[in-house]
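Q: How do we represent a protein-ligand complex in a form that can be generated token by token?
A: Start from the inputs.
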Amino acid sequence: MDKGVHKILLVAGARPNFMKIAPILRALNKIDQTNEINQINYLVVHTGQHYDYEMSQAFFEDLEMGRPDYFLEVGSASHAVQTAKIMVAFEEVCLKEEPDAVVVVGDVNSTAACALVAKKMGIRVAHVEAGLRSRDLSMPEEINRMVTDTLSDWLFVTERSGIQNLKGEGRPETAIHFVGNVMIDNLYYQLAHLGAGDAGGEKPSGPYAVLTLHRPSNVDGEEKFREIMEATVKIAAGLPVYFPVHPRTRQQIEATGLERRLDSGRVHLLPALPYKPFLRLFKDAALVLTDSGGLQEETTALGIPCFTIRENTERPVTIEEGTNRLVGTSAEGILSAFEEFRSGNSKKGRVPELWDGKAAERIVSILLGNPG
Ligand code: UD1
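Then emit the structure tokens for the protein with uridine-diphosphate-N-acetylglucosamine bound:
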């Protein structure tokens, strides 16, 4: 059994991290600190990898996370520069705070950078969402996952494929904990607390699709991006498409001058949305098209048909059990899947094992040394 921890730093850097930290914080806040065994001190470190109001602060407000204890302001840069800046700044925090564990979530640059710093300082590392593998090393996230899992003392897994992947890489079974999915904890919590004031603009009246796109492989190359946008315009002729636009994607829409073409093609361009307005939008969508990791899981949990605009996924349970379908990145692949969907042939699914809203509680219990 692990020795319990008493002081932890929780690391959040980019948009998809915030939804994963929020339920862990809630579970920590619920601990009965009058019991000496459970006494634990925890601080949130925001690296500043994402910094726009819509990409960062809006999430902290929306997810009721208060203010981070540290904001490292690293901002955007090349991978090497961004990772290095996070490491330098995070080392200072670790030196000052002397935590006995660092909790990192997901697969962004902040995840790998902080895991590396902590481990080299002899601080134990917990990785939430461990073991996912796309086997596609052209994705920066895959490299971040592998590095982080190699260094972590606690490997908190969301789906059974993660256990197999970690065992296959020689990670000890005692470090692997199948706990469920904190992203889904957050989804259920936010759904239950969605108020009328969280509308964030007009809600479409009839059936509609929601699109999100931000992977460099889909967005940064002009030819690929145009192809996906042309497919989107064709889909929107049959089903209006609502498209909250990530800053990386916004840059490409501006560079290619596609804004007019999309607008006239019934594609509704929206700013990047905070969590609650986005949830309000996608929870009632007839179809979600995305290259996000988290949205593949959220649509599976809610039973919404999802087209993943990628060639692979690190989240196979969403395909095997859920509503997710890999449609590739060609216009032909996307449109033929849409034709099937239109003819009523959409995928039904079930909610994967342990996606029950209690993953964060399991994680906290294990960190405190009471694995169950
Ligand atoms: C990062 C993560 C990705 C995650 C995504 C969610 C890595 C390697 N990638 O990708 O895994 O799915 O976040 O959004 O960690 N920008 C802004 N404002 C911001 C943030 C970014 O304008 O607040 C712009 C910058 O021009 C930046 C670009 O968006 O160069 C990309 O941002 P970056 O953080 O490098 O990667 P993401 O594509 O957001």
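The longest strand covers residues 124-130. The mean pLDDT is 95.
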